[in-house]
Amino acid sequence: MDRKYRLQLIDFYKSLMEISEEDLSALFSRLDQKRFKKGMIIKEAGKIDQFSRFVCEGLIGLYREKDGTPNLEYLFTTGDIATEFHSYYTNQASEYYLKTLNDGVYIELSADSQEYVAKKNHNLMKLESKVMSYIMSRRTEMNGIRLLGLEAGYRELTKYLGDYIFLLKQTDLAGLFNCSLRKVSRWYSEKGSKDL
Fold first, then answer.
1. Is residue 142 packed enough to be buried (19+ CB in 10 Å), middle (13-18) or exposed (0-12)?
2. Sheet of strand 59-66: strand arrangement
3. 8 Å CB contact between 83 and 52
4. Which InterPro entries does its entry note (predicted)?
5. Helix, strand, coil shares of the chain as percentages rounded to 5?
6. Which CATH number among 3.20.20.510, 2.60.120.10, 3.40.630.10, 2.60.40.3080 corresponds to the domain 3-167?
């Protein structure tokens, strides 16, 4: 694992709770760093999501097909845990898939490894609970942005994503803000891309 990504993940865990180097070593022995390219499907529709992924760099979208078209439902960016939450925690297949929107890096932990280390180590069980709370708070934040609607939501999403906002297509915005592609196209035309 690259040192900078290891330190990034350690900082993330330590922001959630105090944790010893010994506990971190037990966990890090089960982690894998993965590089991804734009457009990769990292969790397929109809399958169980068996991994949680700490996003070190990049943007990942959670999609599902709606009327034969990819519909963006959620975004994971640097510092997020990318997983199809329901599938991962219930061990059930889902219609959602995870697709990368640019090149990047994540560190993944399998559900089996997470369960193994949590059973062996009380502190890592506590950390798992803290990570779950973090995931839920980020989901709440993203859902709040989605509920603002296209114009106000886009402004907040820009704060949330930074320059990654420019990776989103109009179809992604239509899915994310639950509006028509026509509405997004009209809004783009009225505002002009420089004002977005």
1. buried
2. 41-43, 97-100, 59-66, 69-77
3. yes
4. cNMP-bd_dom_sf (IPR018490), RmlC-like_jellyroll (IPR014710)
5. 55, 25, 25
6. 2.60.120.10
Token pair of 48, please? Answer: 């169980």
Cβ-based neighbour number of residue 29 at 10 Å: 9
> Phi/psi of residue 123, each to 5°?
-65, -35
Rounded distance between C-alpha atoms, residue 91 and residue 171, angstroms: 30
Instruction: Give the pairing of strands 104-110 and 59-66.
Output: unpaired
What pLDDT digit, counting tens, does each position of 4-37 carry?
Answer: 999 999 999 999 999 999 999 999 999 999 999 9
Question: What angle in degrees, to the nearest 10, is found between the helix axes of 150-161 and 122-147?
Answer: 140
Q: What is the pLDDT of residues 78-127, one digit of tens each?
A: 999 999 999 998 999 999 999 999 999 999 999 999 999 989 899 999 99
| Encoded tokens for 104 | 């990047």
Q: Per-domain residue ranges for the chain?
A: 3-167
Q: Is 63's pLDDT higher than 70?
A: yes
User: Nearest-CA neighbor of 170 among 149, 183, 157, 184?
Assistant: 184
pTM for this entry: 0.93
Q: What per-residue confidence (pLDDT) applies to 191?
A: 80
Compute the distance between CA of residue 133 and CA of residue 94 in angstroms, rounded to an integer: 22
